[in-house]
Amino acid sequence: MSKSGSRLVKVAILTLLVLAAGCVLLGISSDAQAKVPEMTTLAISKPTVVVPRSATVTPLPSTTAATSLQTWASQTLGTNISLAEAKGYNSQVVAEYLIPTQQRGIIQANINASRAGYAGKVTNGGYNILLLGGGSSLSNQDLTVQIKNASLGYLQLPATSYPANSEAALAQLLQAFPALSSYNFTAVNSPNNNKFSYNFYAYTIVRDKNTEIPTAVEMGVIKLGNKTWNYALVGNGAFTFQP
């Protein structure tokens, strides 16, 4: 073979080697590119916030208020009551109660003279209110002593019927409030200007040791709010009142 032919062969071989190397490099590059993981965009969902519904809570009667009201009703009227609601007394509370105008006025007029007050709704319908007075010295005494010496209490209960006359009304009231049977009641005109009303009033002075404690009692049967009610209002000590 001539020298020129040998050179051509070498050139051809080198060309083939260069082309082969280029293909290998291209293949590696392609594989490398294929092996690079793609960036994946993750969609992060917002957490679902579950807000619990607040439970309906039935308010329980205040222990002090309920005990005071029930003690007064039992001690003063001889009537046992169950309370659906019992709380501290204020003028707004009584404004919500369906009670006769005159009795409401007497209660409201004695707020400033009281050192403690309670109000409650009777389970089967009706209202119970108690104001206690007598200052700090009496507040340390037993509740029954506080009630006897300085208190104003009111209880209103639904009546089964409206009486036909004054005698029937008095009998109905003494059945509802048996502890008041020892008083001598006098029939009085309705202080509420209500023609559907029987009203009775008694005033006495109770002597306890060396102390004279005046007591005023008013009770009645009245039609109010399309219902018939029995009510009793009792004031002791500084809380006595006139009909």
Describe the protein in words.
This protein is 35% helix and 27% strand. It is globular and about 45 Å long. It has 243 residues and is an alpha+beta fold. An 8-stranded antiparallel beta sheet has the order 1-2-3-4-8-7-6-5, with helices on one face. The longest helix is centred in the first third of the chain and has 33 residues, at 3-35. The protein has 7 helices and 8 strands.
Work out the helicity level. Answer: 25-40%
Distance between the amino and carboxyl termini? 152 Å
Number of helices: 7
Number of strands: 8
With strands numbered from the N-terminus, the spatial order across the biggest sheet is 1-2-3-4-8-7-6-5
How would you sum up the major sheet?
8 strands, antiparallel
Listing every helix as H and every strand as E from the N terminus to the C terminus, the arrangement reads HHEHHEEHHEHEEEE
Query: How much is the average pLDDT?
Result: 78
Using the CA coordinates, give the radius of gyration: 46 Å
Show unreliable segments.
Answer: 21-61
Quickly give the structural class: alpha+beta
Strand content: 25-35%
Indicate the overall shape. globular
